[in-house]
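Model it.
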Amino acid sequence: MNYSQTLEFLFSSLPAYETAGATAYKPGLERIAAFCRHLGNPQRNFFTIHVAGTNGKGSVSHIIASVLQQAGYRTGLFTSPHLQDFRERIRVDGEMIPKQKVVNFVDKHHDRMVELGLSFFEMTAALAFDYFAQSDVEVAVIETGLGGRLDATNIIVPILSIITNIGMEHTALLGDTPKKIAAEKAGIIKKSIPVIIGEHDERCDPVFAEVAAANKSKLLHAEELFTCTGQEPAGERQLFHLHRTRDNHDFELLLDLAGDYQRHNIITATAAIDFLHQETPLTISRRAFLEGTRDAAAHTSLRGRWQKLGEKPLVICDTSHNAHGMAYVGEQLRRQSRDYAHLYCVLGVVNDKDLAHMFPLLPADAHYIFTQAKTHRAIPAAELAERAAAFGLQGEVVADVQQAVARARELAGPDDMIFIGGSTYVVGEAL
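Modeled.
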């Protein structure tokens, strides 16, 4: 098989959550464990950091990976989903896995994958582990796909676990209350392995405390270790003023990721990096920390986080796709759009999202261009427009994402603002 045929096999023959939705979700670790045994358990050949959470886990994973790269470690990074190229999911020192490595892996292990009935995500995780081992990776940052307890990545035994935050998402699979979702995410807490919780939540904190205590795992809250006392633009970056609790040390940190919500992610990532340096075999210098955060997106090719695509009009895209994330995005849209004459929003959403909680978070005075990504999980643009109207969101329907973006550019003047989002798939097609 060539590369395109290999991808066709992966996306069509193996169930993928991105395309099939909940029917592709295969909870349990038996299949991935059996397949990794078949591969020689490559996930045991390097240190790992395991990152779960409803929002922010991608940014946190990329920031940590960038810092580790700058510290001189050969660093693997496994994230999902991808925006444009499947290979974005698997990186070593910021570089995507070569196409031929994907082809060779599938050719070699095709029969075993089919025999075990692996899901798309299980296969992808195993591919990442195998490639990292072959590439002499020293430490890998591993982001969960969905949940934690039964996620395919949960066969690793990390040196640190991180749970960024808890929001209401994938409730049909993870539970219909924050406590139930927290219990699923807490499933990544391993016996005697420290865990950092990114954001306090009075509903979920007792769940994490109970699971950590049962596993005799050290539990740390990032917001008790570091606080952000200020956040401001600094050219194409953001400047954060941080305070370290243990010694009352104040310092400044640059980050090349935009978005007001990054103040939460930088606290979580900083707490993790500080812990890794203080209490694990890894050594991270101040220089590596400062340079790694300053150029995190550049080092790891992270895109779609309040990313600027143009000026006059200002064009921003963001992958936030649930109510928890949209709360931050909606607030920033309201605040930032005050500096512009009109706001145009290109919006598309997939069919498992809680629209009743998402829509009220979006600016009602914007002109919406409702669209749909090329996935059968997408809510049809006309239906999305009809449902949005009930919440006072008005506009027009342009089903194709790229045509919708072109329509927004046609309507917007140089003093206007365009926002593109609602779904990772919409952002991917816009990019």
